[in-house]
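INTERNAL AUDIT FORM
Audit reference: QA-55
Scope: verify that the stored structure record matches its stored sequence.
Auditor: D.O.
Record contents follow.
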Amino acid sequence: MTASGKLISGVRTFVSDVTEGFLEITHNSFALIGLAVAFVVITLTARPDLREAGETELMNWLQARQVQMLGMPIEPEASERATAGNPKDLPKEQAAVAFWLSKKYRVAPEPLSVLVSEAYDIGARTKIDPTLILAIMAIESSFNPFAQSAVGAQGLMQVMTTVHTDKYQNFGGQFAAFDPVSNLRVGAKVLQECIARAGSVEGGLRFYVGAGNQADDGGYAAKVMAEHFRLRQVANGRSMPTAPPPVLSTQAPALSVPVAAPATAAPLHGDKVAMLSGL
C-alpha cells in the first residue's frame, strides 16, 4: 500500500473511531437522561407534596417573568372578585330595571345586574318588594358602594356599620360594608326589622333613616316611595323618564334631632340619626 493509501486508511479509521465513540457517549447520555427523567417521575408520583411544591415554584417563576415583561401584577382571578354580570342574562323585568337604573344614575349595567338580581332574591325571601330595596340604594348612595355619611353610614344602603357590626360577622367583619352584595344583604335585614317594628313600609323607612321617634324625616320616606313607584312602573314594562340623578345621600337628612333621647326610647335600627341622637 502506498503512503497516500495508508494515510487515507488511517484517516478513515480515526473518523470511524471518533464517530463510534461519539455515538456511544450520546447513547449513554440519553440513557442517563432517560434514567434521570424516570427517577424524577417516580419520585414525583410517590411524593405528591414535592410535585405540588415544584408546580408552585414553576408557576411563581412564570408569573414573575410575566410581571417583569408587562410591568404590572397579573391576577387571573381578578374578574371573579368583580361584582358584575351580563344584564342580558337577567329575566326581562330585572333587565329593564337594571338598564333604567344604569341610565338614570350613570352606573354601568354589569354591576347593577348583580345588585338587581340579589335584590329580587332577597325580596322573595323577606317578602319585601325588591324595587323598594333598590329605591333605598338609589336615594341613599346613588349606587356608590364606597359612600359614607358624616355620621358613619356606609356603603350602598348607608348602614351604620358600628351599630350593626354583629350583622357583618357572617360576612367576615365590618369591612364587608364596602362589599356591594354584603352591604345590600345587611341593609335589607335592617329594613326588614324596621318595617316589622313600625308595622308599615313608610314607618319602617322612618326608622331606617333614624327618624322613627321624630316628627319629621326630612322627606326621606317620600323620596324613597317616589323612586319605588317609578321602579315598579319600569318593572311592569312602562316607560319612565330618567331625570338627573339626585345628590349623593352622604349627609344626614335635615332632621330636628333632640339633644338626648327619651329614657324609654328603644334603640333605633336606622342609620343617619341614631349616632347623632345617642340612641
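Auditor finding: record pair retrieved intact. The mean pLDDT is 77.
Action required: none
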